[in-house]
Amino acid sequence: xxxxxxxxxLTGRSWADVENDIEAGRGxxxxxxxxxxxxxxxxxxxxxxxxxxxxxxxxxxxxxxxRYGLHPSVQRYxxxxxxxxMTLLNAPVDARGTVSTGGSESLFxxxxxxxxxxxxxxxxxxxxxxxxxxxxxxxxNKAAYALGLTVVQVPHSLDYRADVDALEACITENTIxxxxxAPPFPYGLVDPIPQxxxxxxxxxxxxxxxxxxxxxxxPFAEAMGRPVPMFDFRLPAVRSMSIDxxxxxxxxxxxxxxxxxxxxxxxxxxFSSSVWPAGRYDSDTVAGSRNAGPVAxxxxxxxxxxxxxxxERMAMTLEATDQIVAAINGLDGLAVHGEPEGVHFxxxxxxxxxxxxxxxxxxKGWMLNLQTEPESLLLMLSTQHDDALIARxxxxxxxxxxxxxxxxxxRQGNDDAYGIY
Length: 421
Ligand SMILES: Cc1ncc(COP(=O)(O)O)c(C=O)c1O
Description:
Elements: H1 15-25, H2 46-58, H3 72-88, E1 96-100, H4 103-121, E2 129-133, H5 139-147, E3 150-154, H6 164-169, E4 175-181, H7 193-203, E5 206-211, H8 218-223, E6 238-244, E7 256-260, E8 271-273, E9 281-283, H9 293-329, E10 335-336, E11 344-348, H10 354-363, E12 369-372, E13 375-380, H11 387-406
Parallel strand pairs: 2-3, 2-4, 4-5, 5-6
Antiparallel strand pairs: 1-7, 6-7, 8-9, 10-11, 11-13, 12-13
Helix pairs in contact: 2-9, 3-9, 4-5, 9-11, 10-11
Pyridoxal-5'-phosphate is lined by residues 102-104, 137, 139, 181, 184-185, 210, 212-213, 244, 256.
């Protein structure tokens, strides 16, 4: 029988050696700043990336858990970055924010808080249900599984947005929560949040708005006078929102926030225990120890860019999105799904095999997301996608479509997993 051994991991090696291995190993990776990357890169320029990296490195050994004792600077970063996003999202002055490790944790915390609130205020609900739209991020399903919530997944309407009538029709005496996307990942189309808010208010349901992607996009689009439906705390029925610093906030990955409309809801989020002999343990998050680097990077980027800097980067990215959307809509046989409000969107075709188109583009080095319903390609833009790059993409897209029509490019197979992983 084969024996388990340490093999060549028995003895350590020099950093130079290890570094060589790393460089060789990542030789085939797509660098996150690559202009060919239309997956999730969230790049705002080398200067911003350097600020995020330097701040991260300064705090690389610090633990957020110890912010009240060892690292008061981290406490300040959290307060400042929360204040910034609460202002962006028009949160009331007595709103409450928590920094988390990512969108998934923020969603989980919002759901757990809503569940606990319903346990106290709606004690008749025995089997709590959550209404999700077709396009909500599967982390809601994962969290519902962990929290013992029953998911009711409601198909979207023909325009790829949440179907408010269908959502309302699914409300039962057990419904405690409804989720809208601003925007959801698939299609990049913001759900009709004002209409959802009206329904949520009518039935007394907790409405969470997932602005993990759009939180740092839509407020700037709105400030530029672009058409953005209201999606934030200006709608009184919105009780919680999630927003990611590590997406279009340009922080190093590992930083998000969940915002509750009212500090009084905090009692349903917080956990406290004195059962052990080492002092009271209080926690508002799922994670325990977490690196202070991500929140330091979020703070540094926020201070470096300021509101105006974000606005400027987002203006560039929104204009690039307009340009590429118009170019794709102008091509034979291709159409963008709806009119995206932000900086990501999907496009499909009634005649072309979109998986073949995706495979053809990836063979040319482009990185994009593949989507199954309907089969389509999803592009997310960042500041590296400038005029020249977009022109090159469109030229190569035309070539690939011709190849698919001619039968020289075909689908390579297993494309039904989310994304490009
Ligand atoms: C709309 C949306 N919500 C939530 C998440 C989860 O965020 P994270 O990957 O940071 O956990 C994502 C991730 O891409 C997302 O697109």
